[in-house]
Each structure stands twice: as C-alpha cells, then as structure tokens.
User: Which sequence fits this backbone?
C-alpha cells in the first residue's frame, strides 16, 4: 500500500512538472503592444522550449497631417515654369498589419530570440486628399505616363501605396509565456520590408479607361521639393515594439 501511495505521489509530481514545461501549444497568452507599428493585440503560444508562435494585429492611429503643396497652375505645362498653384493636401494613415511571427530561442532558458515572419496590410497605407486644384485640372488633368490625373470639383484623391505582403526580421528579449508568471513584458527590434512606396492617383487614358498611376516628382516639375523621391527610398521600416502578455493557461 505504501509503495502504491509513493508511486502515485511520484507520478503526480512528474505530471505536474511536465505541465509546467513549455510544450506544443499547451499554454496561451494574450497581449497588447505599442511602438512604431502602432497599437495592437496578440496571441502567443510555445512550441517546445525553443520556439514560440505569435499572431496579432496592429494599426497606426488615423491622425491626419495637413500641408500646402505647389503644383503647376496649368497641367499641360507641368514641364515649364508658366506659373504654379498652391493646393491643400491632407494625409491620413491607413497603416495596419495582420501578423504571423515565429520566435526562435537559441538557448532554452533565455528570453533572447530571433523573429521572422510575415505581415499583411492594405496597399493604400496612407490616404491622400488634395483640394483647391485650378479649374484646368477638372478638364485637362496632369499628364502621367499617357494618363490624365483629373480633379473632380477641384479635388483629387490618391494614396501612398505599399506592398500588401511585408516580410519581417528582428530580434527580441523576453518570452510571452512563462509558467511561473501571470504577466510577461517583452520587446522587439527589427525591420519590415514593404517595397518601394509611391504616390498613386486615378488616371484616365485616351480610351477612357481608368487606372491608378504612380505620380513622380518629374510630373510635378519638382515642385514637391524632392519629397516623392525621398519617400521612394524608404523600402524598409524600423520596428520597435513593447508587449505586455497575460497568461490565459
């Protein structure tokens, strides 16, 4: 009888110890985060002691930025200096990411990890609204690669476009799931590749077909002060995020 009790106790201790060790999806944590990716929420689960998978969503608050931009006064003369016109431009972030990430822990009992994964977000990452265009833009439009970007009642709506699929690579510190803690704080430092950004607007060709066309600095005769060329070089975006996870089980 004593041997049976002793074996039972040992068995229970073994099961308890095993349950505390990270296994494959035997624990789950929910978290919130903030950083250069905006604010968001995540779910995390371990895959043994060396791996952890995270899935989440983050977005940048849609706070608009307004500024004045010079354009050619007559769209047919964008390559000359026959006058310029000031329009009002408003940019509103539409930047969000659905994320699937894999954390790799080189050491079993360390929080240092390497992270790789994919992010997915809308192509129109920043919505752009231009108003107060001259009357000529309602008729002739701005000539961009055999397309005419026309205004509607003095307004042109466009966007800053990015790749929808965005690979991510980075490093971090901390584990989202620790069996001896209810709350865990982690941080990540990395970069996401989102392709060559561009300013796009609807353009009409000679057949009456419409397509989103990339507006270049040359089409504006350089009156954008080089902003478009500078933006096109930002193919990589730095990511610094702090996470707070709460263990569910």
Assistant:
């Amino acid at each position: 009888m004593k041997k049976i009790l002793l074996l039972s106790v040992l068995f229970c201790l073994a099961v308890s110890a095993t349950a505390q060790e990270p296994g494959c999806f035997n624990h789950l944590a929910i978290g919130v985060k903030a950083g250069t990716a905006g604010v968001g929420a995540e779910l995390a689960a371990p895959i043994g002691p060396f791996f952890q998978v995270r899935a989440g969503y983050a977005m940048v608050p849609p706070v608009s930025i307004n500024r004045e931009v010079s354009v050619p006064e007559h769209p047919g003369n964008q390559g000359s200096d026959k006058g310029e016109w000031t329009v009002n431009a408003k940019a509103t972030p539409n930047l969000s990411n659905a994320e699937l990430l894999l954390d790799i822990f080189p050491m079993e009992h360390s929080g240092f990890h390497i992270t790789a994964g994919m992010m997915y977000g809308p192509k129109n990452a920043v919505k752009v609204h231009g108003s107060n265009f001259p009357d000529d833009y309602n008729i002739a439009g701005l000539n961009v690669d055999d397309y005419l970007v026309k205004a509607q009642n003095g307004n042109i709506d466009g966007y800053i476009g990015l790749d929808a699929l965005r690979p991510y690579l980075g490093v971090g510190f901390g584990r989202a799931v620790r069996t001896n803690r209810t709350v865990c704080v982690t941080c990540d430092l990395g970069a996401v590749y989102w392709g060559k950004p561009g300013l796009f607007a609807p353009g009409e060709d000679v057949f009456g077909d419409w397509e989103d066309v990339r507006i270049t600095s040359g089409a504006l005769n350089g009156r954008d002060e080089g902003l478009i060329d500078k933006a096109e070089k930002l193919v990589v975006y730095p990511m610094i995020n702090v996470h707070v996870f709460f263990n569910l089980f």
User: Anything to note?
Assistant: The longest strand covers residues 236-247. The radius of gyration is 26 Å.
